[in-house]
């Protein structure tokens, strides 16, 4: 059965500049973004997302974090030289001290290391240092580090507290928020994991200055997805400001991170464990995860798979009558403008279908997709700005693959 989102008015309307600043892009760039906070409302598991530049260097950022004898910063070999010592010094600068000791573990960098063997490196360090149930883990890095650190926190001694400190755009707008933690399996992405919420998310916008261009584009895929599923006013804003986002305009990036987190908080607050509504956040991911797994993890970045997957899912939505061709073309142009692929690799239709049947949304071998729109337009459907979870005839999926995959 199709599962449309609740009425759009349940989401707070998009405000591009909540601090009241306006003017040209150059004027916005000269003005530092105002510190902002988004609340994830989950009763006794609620927490804040702090969004501002310079947060890693401010002891007040972490003043409310749990106290313990020790803390472990889990990062990777790319991020560690940039930010690990800064975070460690900030944690040790608390008065009174939050921790007696703060250790750092740098994991190998890359999606191909998001596996059980790398996860065990975290357990090895915790057990080797006799970490107890109050030990706090800090996930300093992108989505891979955040997912693995969160999963380790969920499992070690059946649960220890952790804090997300995302340093990529993708992790700041998506993976660090909402409590999904996991590792990959050769047969499927994120198939082994747990829902486990952090104590706090700290999105220091200054960390985006050291992000490679390819990673920045990958993060924009997760920003773009929020428009078609929930907020076309935000989609309009992204279209108008894509050049500035790619140029790392600080105020524009602050708005993109804040609004993305607002939408995700709205979704997660209603459906923490993806029993229905939360699945809309996987727009483009069914196709995208198949691309990642089919090529081998790390060949395409996650955001690249999502960008291409959104185009494929838009084509599927159009063939099923949920959106018109103009929207498909519009989304494709924006994904291209963000520097993302719009044509999928030729894995073979049968291989795509095999991989997608292993998707977490599948039920009884039936592939379920996130379609844009509440229903077919001919039946009074809403069009973009709302999403629906639905099955699609295999013949139509094959048509999409034939149209959207390299010849």
Characterise this structure.
The protein is an alpha/beta fold and 407 residues long. It has 13 helices and 12 strands. It has helices spanning 25-30, 80-92, 116-128, 143-155, 169-175, 213-230, 232-246, 250-270, 285-295, 302-319, 325-337, 349-357, 394-404; strands at 3-4, 36-40, 47-52, 70-76, 101-107, 136-141, 162-166, 180-185, 188-195, 201-204, 368-372, 387-391. A 4-stranded parallel sheet has the order 5-4-6-7, with helices on both faces. Helix 6 runs antiparallel to helix 7 (232-246) and helix 9 packs across helix 12 (349-357).
Topology, pairings included?
Elements: E1 3-4, H1 25-30, E2 36-40, E3 47-52, E4 70-76, H2 80-92, E5 101-107, H3 116-128, E6 136-141, H4 143-155, E7 162-166, H5 169-175, E8 180-185, E9 188-195, E10 201-204, H6 213-230, H7 232-246, H8 250-270, H9 285-295, H10 302-319, H11 325-337, H12 349-357, E11 368-372, E12 387-391, H13 394-404
**How do the helices and strands follow one another from N- to C-terminus?**
EHEEEHEHEHEHEEEHHHHHHHEEH
Number of helices: 13
Uncertain segments: 5-9, 20-30
| Number of DSSP strand runs | 12
How is the biggest beta sheet arranged? Answer: 4 strands, parallel
**Rg from C-alpha positions?**
21 Å
In short:
By secondary structure, the protein is α/β, with parallel strands linked by helices. The chain has helices at 25-30, 80-92, 116-128, 143-155, 169-175, 213-230, 232-246, 250-270, 285-295, 302-319, 325-337, 349-357, 394-404, and strands spanning 3-4, 36-40, 47-52, 70-76, 101-107, 136-141, 162-166, 180-185, 188-195, 201-204, 368-372, 387-391. 41% of the residues lie in helices and 16% in strands.
